[in-house]
Amino acid sequence: MQSRMSINEVEPKIYKAMAEADDRIESFELDPKLRELVKLRTSQINGCGYCVDYHTKEALKLGETAQRLFAICAWWETPFFTKEEQIALKLTEEVTNISNHGVSDEVFNNAIKTFGKQKTAQLIFTIVNTNSWNRLAISTHMVAEQD
């Protein structure tokens, strides 16, 4: 696959604004490993190879295990994820696939009960921002570098 364009060069101001949103998300009170798991799962659902590669590497840098990274595509079928992580991943799936049936009251209320309003809002912003990056990367054919 060949890159179609360097969108940051074509529209640098809005790209910078998105990067600034990323910086803000990095300062959220969310556990960094959880944040990367959410970004990775969002990118998997969207089929964004560039972002799957990136977030897998970032999660590994944070000390995430290979076993959990391999299993995240079927997190609900494994004993590897905490109840908190499962709630965040379920929210990730419903927000990312929002056109299917929205975000259910059960999932939203479980997130609020588990994380509180502020961290739930932070999770939603993390998911939404990652979805935006996925759409940019897929649309422009951003290509992951092979190690």
How would you describe this protein?
It is a single chain. With 147 residues, the chain is mainly α. The protein has one domain: AhpD-like (Up-down Bundle). The chain is built from 8 helices and no strands. α3 (32-46) packs antiparallel against α4 and α6 crosses α8 (105-140). The protein is globular, with a radius of gyration of 15 Å. It starts with 6 loop residues before the first helix and ends in a 7-residue tail after the last helix. The relative contact order is 0.19.
Short description:
The chain has about 150 residues and is mainly alpha-helical. It has eight helices and no strands.
The top level CATH class name: Mainly Alpha
For the termini, the CA-CA separation is: 16 Å
Q: Name the overall outline.
A: globular
**Secondary structure: helix percent:** over 70%
Order of helices and strands: HHHHHHHH
Structural class, by secondary structure, is: mainly alpha
Task: Give the SSE layout.
Layout: H1 7-10, H2 12-26, H3 32-46, H4 49-61, H5 66-71, H6 83-96, H7 98-101, H8 105-140
List its salient traits:
8 helices, mainly alpha, AhpD-like, single chain, 147 residues, 73% helix
